[in-house]
Amino acid sequence: MKKIRVVPLLLTMVISAGVLFGGYTFVRAQWMEKPLATALSNIEHVEHAEVAWSPSELKVQLTLESPSKLAAIMEQVYKLAGKEAKSRDIQVNIINQATNEHLEQFWSTALFSVAEAMSHQRYGDIPARLQDLMKQDPTVQVDTAMDERNIYISLTDKAGFKSIVLPLQGSRIGVWPNEEPQSEMA
Q1: Tell me: the pLDDT tens digits for 123-152?
Q2: Helix (H, G, I), strand (E, B) or coil at 23
Q3: Is 13 helix (H, G, I), strand (E, B) or coil?
Q4: CA–CA distance, 118 with 150 (Å, rounded to integer)
Q5: Bridge-based pairing state of the strands 57-64 and 89-95
Q6: Which H or E run contains 64?
Q7: Helix axes 125-136 and 101-119, enclosed angle (nearest 10)
Q8: Would you say 49 and 65 are in contact if contact means Cβ atoms under 8 Å apart?
Q9: Rg, C-alpha atoms of the chain
Q10: By the 8 A CB rule, do 147 and 169 touch?
Q11: How many CB atoms lie within 10 A of CB 174?
């Protein structure tokens, strides 16, 4: 019987594992994530896009040049990402680099009214409530849109803009996103 040489066997196993897993990581980064990120960055009004794959979801982070036509931008994002995602969930996060304290304060004031309308599924109340707040602060312009997945809100003033995407289904919005619902009270 032949004696098995341990060093060449271990070396072969390490090289094979490195090629297998390293190759998958390279293929995912170069042939899946990078082309999708480039395609998303080419959408009008998208400044930068980053894509991250996981077994159950596709995460997309967008930086917008301007808030115009947020719903149309998101429709294109879901269309492009949907082709690649297959059965994965698509999570889109908008990075608001152009926001300012004034817009954050306006959104903070509007958040309770918006959250209340979302929890009661009275989505038509959201534009009216934001318009009422806009009357109190006319320096902020509000644009809202809705599709079958999300509600899109764009806040704009002279110094910047803020884009908000609220899912119709899913997690609650608010200050404490990790708060557990208190449904056990009877």
Answers
A1: 989 999 999 999 999 999 999 999 999 999
A2: helix
A3: helix
A4: 11
A5: parallel
A6: strand 57-64
A7: 150
A8: no
A9: 23
A10: no
A11: 13
